[in-house]
Amino acid sequence: MQKFASLWSIATIVGAVISFAALSSNHLTAATTDENPITRLMGYWSGHGLVVTRSGPEKQFKCVVTYRPTKDGELLRQTMRCRNSDGKFEAITTLLFSGDSVTGKWTETTHNLGGDVSGKITDEGFDVHLSGRFFQAKMRVSSTACDQLVELTPVQTDQFKELSASLKKRC
Known about the structure:
Shape: globular
Strand content: over 45%
Structural class: mainly beta
Number of helices: 1
Mean pLDDT: 76
């Protein structure tokens, strides 16, 4: 059960990082344009993910992700809910963008995990490093106005090799 919980926790981290794309470079209240890789992801997304395990079968799951600004418009609050036949999890992330830098905190509420996020905005989305007491990974998020691809590679591959997610929103 702990191995499954860890896989779900990693999937949760993916959702946390996906949330970065909902922010403008300085404020969430800036106008959304398809040219900006950060602001174009604001709203409701859903899709499928796949965890490639170190040994054993791949794990598939369905996720719903929402991206909303905080009351003051400076931060993003992301909520991700995922499930498959083996279980479910929920993650909440709050992030800040300054210039082309990304910083923030993530919390996986089902398994009581959390950590820090840091990285850079790219032309397609962003590249970040996820850190926590029990987990570290590199993540790349690339998107268009209606599609988003997330690829996560852990620093240590003792539990899984890769996690990817393909999300869509109505355009």
